Amino acid sequence: MKKLINAPDRVVDEALAGMAAAHSDLIRVEPPNIVVRKDAPRRGKVGVISGGGSGHEPMHGGFVGLGMLDAACPGAVFTSPVPDQMQAATKAVDGGAGVLHIVKNYTGDIMNFDLAAQLAEAEGIQVKSVVIADDVAVKDSLYTAGRRGVGGTVLAEKIVGGCAESGANLDTVTAMCQRVQDNVRSMGMALTSCTLPSVGKPTFDLGDDEMEIGIGIHGEPGRSRMKIATADQIVEMLMTPILEDLPFKSGDRVLAFVNGMGGTPLIELYVVYNAVASMLKGKGITVARNLVGSYITSLDMAGCSISLLKLDDEMTRFWDAPVHTPALRWGL
Amino acid sequence: MKKLINAPDRVVDEALAGMAAAHSDLIRVEPPNIVVRKDAPRRGKVGVISGGGSGHEPMHGGFVGLGMLDAACPGAVFTSPVPDQMQAATKAVDGGAGVLHIVKNYTGDIMNFDLAAQLAEAEGIQVKSVVIADDVAVKDSLYTAGRRGVGGTVLAEKIVGGCAESGANLDTVTAMCQRVQDNVRSMGMALTSCTLPSVGKPTFDLGDDEMEIGIGIHGEPGRSRMKIATADQIVEMLMTPILEDLPFKSGDRVLAFVNGMGGTPLIELYVVYNAVASMLKGKGITVARNLVGSYITSLDMAGCSISLLKLDDEMTRFWDAPVHTPALRWGL
Fold it and tell me: Can you give the pTM of this predicted structure?
C-alpha cells in the first residue's frame, strides 16, 4: 500500500488534526471527532450539518464555514459516523432556530442520523433531515436502499448553506435542500480501485485496460465493467443516463460539476469538462455555473463523476453567495 | 495507460478548451496557446507572466486572473513553451508599465523566455525576469543547471501578483519576486511515477514498497530511492534539508505549503500537514500562513512536496491580498 500515512488507525485523527492546524481561523475540531464552524452556534441561524465516512475529502469537513456547513461528522474511513457525533454536532450548532441534517443515502448514515435526531429532539432541538440520493447509476447498492448520495451533496451543502446564512427559517432551509435533491443527478466512473488504509490492497480488481462505469464512492459496483474508452465516450456514457433521468432538456440552465475521485489530476478533469460543455451546448442546455475539481473523493481512486443541477434563480443566488470554508471560498 | 483523455496529442488543447469554457469570466485562451487574463492589458499595471510545460495543473494557467498572473504559456506536456508563446503573452499583457517573466529554472524555459524577452524588448516593451530555483534536493538535474524551480513558484506568483495589482512599478515587482525566491525552499517525493500521455507507460520504475525522495516535478531522479516510510519520517526527510538550507530558525514566521503531486488525495496531504505543523512548532517557527492542496502537480504522480517561505510583513500583505483565478480565490 502506497499512502502518505503513519498508521491505518491514525489516518482520520491525524488528518483532522492537520485540518484544525491549517484552518484554525475557520473551524474547530472537538470530541467526539466533529468539525465545527469556529463561531458556532450562531444565535437565530438555522444550523446545517452533514457527515459520513472519511475518505471523501474535502467532503464534508472541508465544507464547514460561513455560508456552507456549521458542522461535519467524519466517521472512520468509509464507515458511518456514530450517532454520538451527529448528536454532539447538532447541539454544537443549534442557535435556537433548529438544525438541518443533510444525509447521503447510505443505510448506516440514515440510521445513525435518525437516532441522533431523536436524541437531539428529546433535548428540545428541532431537527429536520433531507436525504441526498442523486446517483442514477444503480437503483439499490451494496450499502443503499435506493439511489446513492454522491456529487449532488456538494452542491446541496453550498446552496443550502447560503440559504441558511441568509436568515431563512428551518422549513425554508429544508425545502431548499429538498429542491436541490429533486433537481440534481450524478454518475461516476473509475479507472482504478481505491485502497482502504486498513485493508492495504485494492478494494476491487480492474484490469490494466478496464474501467468501471457507474461506480459508487466506496468502490461499490456500478453498471458495467468494460474496456477503457476515450474521455468523450466516457462523458457520453455518464451524461446520457443523467440527462434522461430528470430529464434535462433544451432551454434548461444547469450547474455542471466535474468531480475528481482523488487520484485523477486536474488536467484530465478539464478534458472531461470540455466534453461535458460541448455536449450540453449541442443539446441547447446552458451551463450557467460550473465546478471542476476533486470535492467528493474515494481515497486514491482514479476516475471522475459528473453532476448536473437544474438551476432556478434562487438556487443560483445561493450558489453565488459568499462562502468561506477550507475547500470552497469566494465573496470574502 | 489509464487516463481520462481522448488522444495524447490533444490533451493540452482540450484541457485549455475546458478551462476557457469553465472560466470565461476570468480568462481567455488565445493563439498560440496562451492563457490571458480576461481584461488584459490593464493600462499602467505591470504585467506578470509565467509558463512552462503542461502537466503541472493548475500551475500556471489556473493562476491567471486578478491579483496573480496576467498570462500563462503552457507548453506541451513536460515541454517548455516556445518563444512565440512568451512573446505573444508579453504583448497581450503589456499596459505600458513593463512585464515581469517568472521563470522556473529549467534549461528550455530559461532559453525560450530569454529569447522572447529580447523579441519583446525589440518591440519596445520593457521586460524583467526572475528565475525561481527553490528545490533543495539536487544541485543540478536532468533538465537544469542549478536548482529546479518547484513549489515556491506558486507562492511567488501569488505574492508578486498582489504586488503588481497594488500599482507597484516594474523594479519593485521584480525585487519582490527576487525576495520570494531568496526566502523560499522546497523538496518533494514520490510514491509512484507519473505517466506521460505520449509515452503511455510510467516514466520510471518504483517498486511496490519503494519511494523516491527529492524527486523533480517531471519525475527526474531525486536524492535517493528507499523503502516506503511513515508520513512523519517522510516529512522529516523533506523538512530537514529545507530548514538547514536557508536556514530557517526559531522565531521565524513562515508560510508552509503542502502540495499534492496530482495522484494523492487530500486526506493524505492533511496527515502530512499535521506532521509539518508539529515539527515547526517544535522548532519555535511560527506558521503564519499555509496552503494545502495540489497546486503544482506532475500529471498522475502520487506524492507530495513541501515548501517553506520565510515571510515578512510585506510578503504577508501581498499573500493576503484579493485573488480571483480558477485555482486560488479569496477576498472577492
Answer: 0.98
